[in-house]
């Protein structure tokens, strides 16, 4: 797995896939800079007049409902259908699903209308998509991890997608194979957009990982988590303001030795 | 007062109030990260389909007209009315009131239609709200401070709100009691969104300071100013690019001793 | 030329021109902070209800189509016409022209309807505006530089504007006089919005460089490139995450000696 993470990371740098993000206004800059840091090419385009064309020339499409509105949702449908027609993988980040009816329903409708490759969200968001009432504030206890696996698997089978349910332990599944990843840093939870950027980074790994896309998703999440761990160590004498630049440094130039030593990822079949 | 500032700061961390921001596109990321730094939970939601629901589950609502448009203003009314119905305190940041007719009128209309708890702005913005023609580029001379107090008091009485008029000396008043705060750093004026973030930080302090909300506003402003002072000192060997990460560090972990030693806040009755 | 760069830089600080940006949602914060760093006053306003009024009180207007949509384009026309009526210089940044039909056509229509002072873009964007099919991924070979000069000159004459075609070598021309600038750092290509901010910085220099506006454009680009060079050196022990704060530091306080020693700019007549 270490070698796969390294190989995919290098493939992103070499191929520089164009990742089209229709995302929320909070994280646009952070997302674009994070994609540049790993060598991908970000593009943001929201207008219905161009999203279909932009998605068709992209290698990945990310739909993020963090600050959704009527116009943007219309553009998401147009971009999603164009991506489907052109075999461009689609990542859905259902930010805040469950917080309002509008978010929950929009996320579900997108899943019904568009062929989504991956849903990337936290336990609360994923469980709300499938209408499960699980009380999870993060995946930290044994019971919570069990619940997370059940929820992720159920969502994967119900929607016919991969699911990456991220928390203290990240669960990546297609409903049959499951990866458990334990890399990351609590500091990620104190910076806005770290989940959103992870969705976009995963899209970049998917763009170059066609031979085993589920493994590509797990590799992206592991890479991201290890980058955060190393950044947190290097920024340990500073507060949260300095974590961000150190994190981008690691996204850009994470040492392969760190990947080999820190990777905590195991795979299981149901 | 020192103890109150410390107590409210800790209460924000413990309660982690959900602060709903309908704000301008320039400062969304900065605002969210600043709220995370003090331990609050930021949410940005703009769509008319969900703002009422989101405001109703929040502990604070911030309306910021920095890049207002027709759709966003409609959402501000919906969110504001929902906040009023659910006893969620509303902070209005009238960014640029006076610069264009549209801004001035929108700010006044919002004040007429919504029960606002606090207006947070600079001298130019507040004076334009009440149609006073005072030439103030910051509150630095004795005359300017006198004018600021008159303007802030008049606005507080006219709109029935608290007013925080920030500048070299910050004036916080309900029209009768007035706090004068002299913490802060000139570097705040060289980073975009520092006023906007202050409005949101104040909203977080209001959410946990119900027993004396005017004091909570003054406490938020003092905390913010002291964090900026300490950050400016720690970043003194660097330019403006480094002030921002140091400032977020201090918002997160400002030493209580610094608060005790630096607090410059006095209260007066009219 | 060194003295001119220094003089204009100081003039920006002293006059603090108000630069009205109608720009994409990715770079709003970065642009505002970059303008503050050089001492200019940024304002972002998008609503049709106010853009005309805002442009009329500004000293520069920047139209950036990076995340254009129907409403924003309408505002660009209103602001542009107001700027023209009030003799406010207009800078157009045709982000992504050529990537989609909507972008290419919108950029051309803006050029037809509004009196634009300067177009600032890369080789691909500028060549698409004039429908030239030149394969340019940056201006790095001798042939590419020759092509760039031809494209920039043709665009300048066709649209009756100044053109700043930026790449490894930056070409600034009015179709007759041409400046070649070789300052900059590859790190600029790894941070989102560095081209967009350059357009806005150029607008600030134009606001104070009326006696020779073409030279003002060249001076802005040289200043920006030198700031990036120095920042890249100071941040050389760090990754891309640290380049950004160091770059803002230099935009704010770039040493005049650095300008004198590093400036690489020559002027030619056709």
From TrEMBL, chains A, B, C:
One MF annotation (Gene Ontology) recorded for this entry: ATP binding
| Annotated EC | 2.7.1.50
Q: Tell me the protein's name.
A: Hydroxyethylthiazole kinase
Annotated residues that bind ATP are located at 120, 166
In the record, what lineage is assigned to the organism producing the protein?
A: Bacteria, Bacillati, Bacillota, Bacilli, Bacillales
Q: What organism does the UniProt record list as the source?
A: Alteribacter keqinensis
Which keywords does this chain's UniProt record carry? ATP-binding, Kinase, Magnesium, Metal-binding, Nucleotide-binding, Thiamine biosynthesis, Transferase
What is the required cofactor set for this protein?
A: Mg(2+)
The reply on keyword ATP-binding is yes
Protein family membership:
Belongs to the Thz kinase family.
